[in-house]
Write a structure and sequence with these properties.
Blueprint (H helix, E strand, L loop, with lengths): L2 H18 L3 H11 L9 H11 L2 H6 L2 H7 L5 H9 L24 H17 L3 H5 L5 H10 L4 H9 L3 H13 L6 H9 L3 H14 L3 H9 L6 H13 L6 H10 L15 H12 L1 H8 L4 H11 L1
Helix pairs in contact: 1-9, 6-10, 10-12, 11-13, 13-14, 13-15, 14-16, 15-17, 17-18, 17-19, 18-19
């Protein structure tokens, strides 16, 4: 049997064994989440959504803390609670067709909260140190699993950054600035999910250094809408200030972020300097959004609605 497949099956088996040790109700909830379901059986979905409508998500999950400790590493619990309570800082759609929209209602984030749980659960089963994992100072099996599955746990990384963990910040900096490891989607998304301005600057430096690395430039830009508004604002300003819209990958990424381009389309001709300047104004000036809603220009109206959402 292929060593990678054997390792993957072992990881999945370890996960199942952990879940089997939990209560029946928690098991029902978690098995649906791990299999990608957005709802749960036996009426638990209504209880879950009702709880999310009344308080922060951690209040619901802490009722199952005894079970959680059987699935998640205990030292990750604080990060998990932080991340699910902070979820409204992110957009509520994480698919490739996502639009940069947010909501005040936690119930709109059920799928994102489920994704966060999966991130923490799978990382817990690997039972490795995050910094060693990113630097690939782990077993060959772990490294292969990381690279072939693109398992890089952005929500765990984002929460660790926001906790002020100096080791993770130094590790990410070393990877970006000194090529100590490979830059990947999970790492980039983890930084954008954080609220650390210095880490945004790190992405700025990486983007400006990309030069002829079109693939890297594309990865940085097409994920800048995955995390916080602050991360998006920062990176969008970098793009404008350095005239990076001249690169087709950057222009396509921005057009997709603002909904001017469907995922499958090539793009590259729908966003000029005028529209780019308007986007920056709308992002930074709430009053301008109301003003442009009364415009006779359909593009100005659309972008104003996009900025509000």
């Amino acid at each position: 049997m292929d060593k990678y497949l054997e390792f993957t099956r072992r990881i999945n088996s370890d996960m199942d064994q952990r879940i089997d040790k939990t209560s029946a109700e928690f098991k029902t909830l978690v098995k649906d989440i791990l299999h990608g379901a957005s709802v749960t059986g036996t009426g638990l979905e209504k209880v879950y959504r009702k709880a999310l409508g009344e308080d922060v998500p951690s209040v619901f999950w802490k009722k199952y803390e005894k079970d959680l400790k059987k699935v998640l590493k205990p030292d990750l619990l604080q990060y998990f609670y932080y991340e699910i309570d902070n979820v409204r800082a992110y957009q509520f759609d994480t698919t490739v067709y996502r639009r940069n929209f947010r909501s005040r209602d936690y119930r709109d984030y059920v799928k994102v909260i489920n994704n966060i749980f999966r991130d923490f659960a799978r990382f817990s089963v690997l039972d490795v140190d995050m910094c060693d994992y990113l630097l690939e100072k782990v077993s060959e099996d772990h490294t292969t699993y990381k690279n072939r599955n693109n398992m890089n746990f952005p929500y765990v990384i984002g929460a660790m950054i926001d906790s002020g963990d100096e080791r993770i910040i130094e590790t990410l900096t070393d990877i970006v600035m000194n090529s100590a490891g490979s830059v990947n989607y999970g790492m980039i998304r983890g930084i954008y999910l954080s609220q650390n301005e210095k880490m945004y600057v790190l992405m700025e430096k990486l983007l400006l250094a990309a030069r002829l690395q079109e693939g890297l430039r594309q990865s940085i830009c097409e994920n800048m809408d995955f995390g916080t508004i602050e991360a998006f604002r920062h990176m969008f300003k970098v793009i404008l200030d350095n005239d990076l819209l001249r690169f087709s990958s950057v222009q396509r990424a921005v057009e997709t972020c603002v909904g001017l381009l469907a995922y499958e389309e090539k793009g590259g001709d729908r966003l000029g300097k005028k529209q780019a300047a308007l986007i920056e104004e709308l992002l930074n000036d709430p009053a301008s959004r109301e003003k442009y809603l009364s415009s006779n220009d359909h593009m100005e109206i659309y972008l104003a609605l996009w900025a509000i959402a």
